TrEMBL record:
Keyword field: Nucleotide-binding
Organism: Loigolactobacillus zhaoyuanensis
CDD domains (UniProt xref): Ubl_MoaD
Name by which UniProt lists this protein: Molybdopterin synthase sulfur carrier subunit
Keyword Nucleotide-binding belongs to the record: yes
Stored InterPro entries: Beta-grasp_dom_sf, MOCS2A, Mopterin_synth/thiamin_S_b, ThiS/MoaD-like
The organism's place on the tree of life at top rank: Bacteria
Key word Nucleotide-binding present: yes
Length: 82
């Protein structure tokens, strides 16, 4: 299935868009989202390792399965600043 994935901060800057479409097959996990994004956008590999994945506005662990109905996927890179 095709999903819109929201991107933030440096991840969006690296790709040049704040949202991309990824093809994912069930069951969807955070690891699967990162793998699909890395395959489509190899330049994101170093940032993806530290990104959090939120599915339906809930952070999920790498291997945690998403609910059967996925309405939103977002990747949030670590934030730094002072």
């Amino acid at each position: 299935m095709m999903f819109n994935v929201k991107l933030f901060a440096i991840l969006a800057e690296q790709i040049g868009h704040s949202e991309v479409q990824l093809t994912l097959t069930a069951p969807i996990t955070a690891a699967a989202v990162k793998t699909a994004l890395r395959a489509q956008y190899p330049q994101t590999a170093s940032v993806l390792a530290d990104c959090l994945v939120a599915i339906n506005q809930t952070f999920v662990s790498e291997e945690q399965f998403a609910p059967s109905e996925v309405t939103e996927i977002a990747l949030i890179p670590p934030v730094s600043g002072g």
